[in-house]
Amino acid sequence: MRTDSGAESTNASTSTNESEKPKIIEPIRLPTPEEIRGQDIWNNCAVRSVVSGVMGGGLGLFMGLFLGALENPIMQEEMTGRQQFIYQAKQMGRRSWSSCKAFALMGLVFSAAECVVEKARAKHDITNTVIAGCATGGAISARGGLKTACAGCAGFATFSVLIEKFLERHD
């Protein structure tokens, strides 16, 4: 019995000693010149916008492929297997190219607007997201007229704020 209680007291004293030890603070490491150069490149609004546009285009391409594959031909019963395959391939190609352009434009405009507003205001907050969302929604829907551009502005700004709140990027 003594060995059990002695082991328990040893374990208890070990755990208290570990909590009493001062935590080691690591020294601050200065960034290397390569890291500084990379950060300077990424802080350029043109670079950030182009990268966002390319990534948005890639996302749109994959979404178009997926959604194009889900479409069924109207006269499916009358088509042969080869005709259905060709129809599906064409639909996927059309849908992917259309989605690719739309998402690339959306990513480019949103990223450019947010970056420019952030640099002009010298703040990183939710207001930048609202302005960038409004500019993006208005630019994308401007072909439909003034009412459509205003609705696009409000809708995309709201969507952008909801995504920011969901991701909790800003305090």
TrEMBL record:
<comment type="similarity">
    <text>Belongs to the Tim17/Tim22/Tim23 family.</text>
</comment>
<feature type="region of interest" description="Disordered">
    <location>
        <begin position="1"/>
        <end position="26"/>
    </location>
</feature>
<keyword id="KW-0812">Transmembrane</keyword>
<keyword id="KW-0999">Mitochondrion inner membrane</keyword>
<dbReference type="InterPro" id="IPR039175">
    <property type="entry name" value="TIM22"/>
</dbReference>
<dbReference type="Pfam" id="PF02466">
    <property type="entry name" value="Tim17"/>
</dbReference>
<feature type="compositionally biased region" description="Low complexity">
    <location>
        <begin position="7"/>
        <end position="17"/>
    </location>
</feature>
<dbReference type="GO" id="GO:0030943">
    <property type="term" value="F:mitochondrion targeting sequence binding"/>
</dbReference>
<dbReference type="GO" id="GO:0042721">
    <property type="term" value="C:TIM22 mitochondrial import inner membrane insertion complex"/>
</dbReference>
<protein>
    <submittedName>
        <fullName>Uncharacterized protein</fullName>
    </submittedName>
</protein>
<keyword id="KW-0496">Mitochondrion</keyword>
<feature type="transmembrane region" description="Helical">
    <location>
        <begin position="50"/>
        <end position="70"/>
    </location>
</feature>
<dbReference type="GO" id="GO:0008320">
    <property type="term" value="F:protein transmembrane transporter activity"/>
</dbReference>
<dbReference type="GO" id="GO:0045039">
    <property type="term" value="P:protein insertion into mitochondrial inner membrane"/>
</dbReference>
<keyword id="KW-0472">Membrane</keyword>
<keyword id="KW-1133">Transmembrane helix</keyword>
